[in-house]
Amino acid sequence: MTTVSQSTSRLDDAAESAAASDVDRLVDTVRYPLDGRDLPAADARHAAYWRAVEEARTGLRSDGCALLKEFVTPTAVRLLNAEIVAAKPRTHFSMQVINPYFHTQVNPEFSDDHPVNTFTERSSGFIPGDAWPSVCAMDTLFRAPQVCRLLADCLEIDELHCYDDPLAGLTANILDPGQQFPWHFDTNDFAVTVLVQPADEGGLFEYAPGVRTATDEGFEAIGGLLAGGRDGVHTLDLCPGDLQIFRGRYSLHRVTRVAASSQPRHAAIFAYTHQPGVIGRVERTRQLFGRVLAEHEEAERSRVREDDLLD
To answer: What pTM did the predictor assign?
Structure first.
């Protein structure tokens, strides 16, 4: 049974019960019947549920990316965007030059043109998890057990837990006009995002699947992409309400620069983990949110790495 980490819930029992029904008004349950999983096989909703799951699995198996088109209803998209706009004053914007591993300093062990020493402007912003009201559409969608169970089925895992990080669990990525998020890798195995407001021009999600593995950094392929190469690059022109499941630990990816004349790009980010109680890394948290909390410092002292990648 797929569960949501109890420690992450900020809703009291009554609100959580209401949220379970509210999620049906946020998701297109005709196309994605969240209750279809356990219905009899002859029921059309059962078939629709597993059809969506199999399509997502196919994408994740082939190139680490699954797209659930128009998962969130148009009405709910407008509600999510209103919540993002309301919380936007809490956004931490930063301008850095980073390499694909989020490092900002030259490493003398590598040549000047090596991917480790290739730096690009990052100019996006993130709304932290503690900026959201305790009960809102963003939070309801993030914590809904039915959604967690669907995502777990797509990822072919038994359990999925809300990321316990108080800043990075439920966030929104903001790209204002002129901003970009350059080529990089994620520290998490996978990420779940919903495009809420696209840019009028630019702001395209691009990725190169599987350019590295847990034992091979893939520097040659990464260097080619950083130099402007397009080998293996996929471009997604996402629409509002599209939900994306993406394995960004091993796939280099970016969001292209939003045009100076464009409206901002807003994307909700729902972070989940295989195990409960996971807290983000101190260095990456400080880069994205400009601060860390006591929970991050404590988790860093007891952290055990799962691989030896640069990050």
So the answer is: 0.90
The domain defined by 7-301 folds into Jelly Rolls (2.60.120)
pLDDT tens profile 33-58: 999 999 999 999 999 999 999 999 99
Q: Where are the domains of the chain?
A: 7-301
Beta bridge partners of 121: 97
Query: pLDDT of 137-172, one tens digit each?
Result: 999 999 999 999 999 999 999 999 999 999 999 999
